[in-house]
Amino acid sequence: MEPTLEAQKSISTDNNAIVVKGLRKSFKKLTVLNGIDFSVKRGTVLALLGPNGAGKTTTIRILSTLLLPDGGQALIHGFDVVREANKVRSLIGLTGQYAALDEYLTGEENLHMIGRLYRLNHQDIKRRTQELLELFDLMEASARTVKTYSGGMRRRLDLAVSLIAAPPIIFLDEPTTGLDPRSRLIMWDIIEQLVTAGTTILLTTQDMDEADRLADKIVVIDGGRIIAEGTADELKQRVGSERLEITIAEASSFETAKRVVYGEGLHLDSKTRTLSLATKGGVHQLKQVLSRLDEAGIGVENVSFHRPTLDDVFLTLTGHTTEQPNIVIEKQEA
Amino acid sequence: MTKSSFITSVQTEKHSKIFWALSDSWVLAKRSIKHITRNLDQLFAVALFPIMFFLLFRYVFGGAIDTGDLSYVNYLVAGILVQMLAFGANYTTLNLAIDLQRGIVDRFRSLPMASSALLVGHVGADLVRNTMSSLIVLGVSFLVGFQPVAGPVEWMLVLCLAILFSLAISWLSAIMGLLVKSIEAAQWTGFIVIFPLTFVSSAFVPTDTMPEALRFFAENQPLTHVIEAIRGWLVGAPIGDSGWLAFAWCVGIIIVAMPVATWLFRRQALR
Ligand SMILES: Nc1ncnc2c1ncn2[C@@H]1O[C@H](COP(=O)(O)OP(=O)(O)O)[C@@H](O)[C@H]1O
Ligand SMILES: [Mg+2]
Predict the structure, then answer these.
(1) Rounded CA separation A33/B14 (Å)
(2) Which CATH number fits domain A241-307: 3.40.50.200, 3.30.70.100, 3.40.50.720, 3.40.1260.20?
(3) Which of A111, A313, B102, B145 could form a disulfide with A129 if both were Cys (CB 3.0 to 4.6 A apart)?
(4) Do B107 and A96 touch (CB under 8 A)?
(5) Mind listing the pLDDT tens digit for each residue in A74-99?
(6) How many structural domains compose chain B?
(7) Full-model pTM
């Protein structure tokens, strides 16, 4: 991966591949980004984590010069995404939320076309196309039109196309949403290899596991604001080192249980009849909670301790889960 | 999978801005032209529709239409050709709307390419499509009795005007394609503009029998000038001022529509 001379110059003075300061964007009256700040170190992966409508795609679109911000600044290798859009475009590869391929061209033709539009020379285009087709297991399908491709194949080709010019920075907007488990693992593997090769990656996801597995740093956004950032472990610490989860036996007594159990970082889920709360892992707290439930005559079906998942982090930070955007679940007053 | 394939270097070529603007346009024109051959429906639609009209007018209505000294076949060919060119050039609207919906435009916009190249590509493909369907329609017209009197100069004039007319309509179509909100809308907007324009003209019938106001419109709208000019050169009918007026209209439309479409395309990126 060889950035241009100019790009190298700016890298030597700044270790950040991407710097975002006070980014704002509204569509008519709807404020979608309300002052976003973050930076991505060169050669690392940053995951923008947030539910549907959080502003992830909007952020990516601004960074990839598809959309003008209303305020704030974004720099890619030191180049401004608004004023130096063309420089930025030669440094980035974009894989959007939906495959951006030409249906009537073959896989190979798609790669050739985009390679030439990146201004590569013909030899490199041919070599790189072969490499990528092999790498993404698309060799056999390379002479077929994309119309005939499966969902997983399209995603792979879409990513391959954005890698044709071997850009030092890649944007991936929900790269695994809607993929079957096997395709998802393949995608993760490819992303990890890209990082090993020195690429800087900004990805968005709604999936905690994905962020946990791939990202060096996670930025949690909700409603156009950053609500937390840090490594996966740092975020997990905010909800306690361990979580206690209790499943109530009968749905009818769940309401009562909500009243007698309290504690830090309490989450309630009436569908699965579970209560979960932050704990230091002591037996004392377990005993206390169980005896309170017992006194109230509430049967317990299951008790477990587990390391907090990013789902728990998200619930603690935003008050709603990723599956139920914007529905604030009841919070316990201590 | 081998890791080495990710650590690779590629060379970009260094050329002037103009070189790249042309290169990008060529790359995207090739793409759109491939679409024609892979999606033959569009080509058939463009060629079959005018042939149907041709035969319909030639054999069903033709007998009842008085075109004076000129045989009706000879009268009709120019009208059919221009109508076909207009519909063929309108595919830019549809194909641009499809690109915008499918998200491939986002990819193009994130590349360091010339922003007008996509539009030029579609407009160029319309030209290729129109060339093919013109040949088909002319072929059919000879079969049903078309007898042109045009010499080499007249054929050249017809060719030049046909190209300019196709470009003019394509650039107008580009504007429409950038403005419509859906693929469905892109499919009918062209029809509701081109259909009345071709019928309220001298394409199929002489304008003399039309009511006053309609006749005034029909005789002064650009399509009539283009039709009259082409008819004049092909079969020797009187041209009047239509020759230079047709060229002026086409060039004028291109000069206005091209920058407007390019501007709209850029502006859309920045919504
Ligand atoms: N072009 C647009 N016009 C109006 N509203 C938009 C537009 N693009 C996105 N939005 C709105 O902005 C919000 C954030 O969208 P998006 O960035 O796509 O979220 P995410 O990718 O996190 O799901 C959503 O409420 C969406 O409806
Ligand atoms: Mg999104």
Answers:
(1) 38
(2) 3.30.70.100
(3) A111
(4) yes
(5) 999 999 999 999 899 989 999 988 88
(6) 1
(7) 0.81
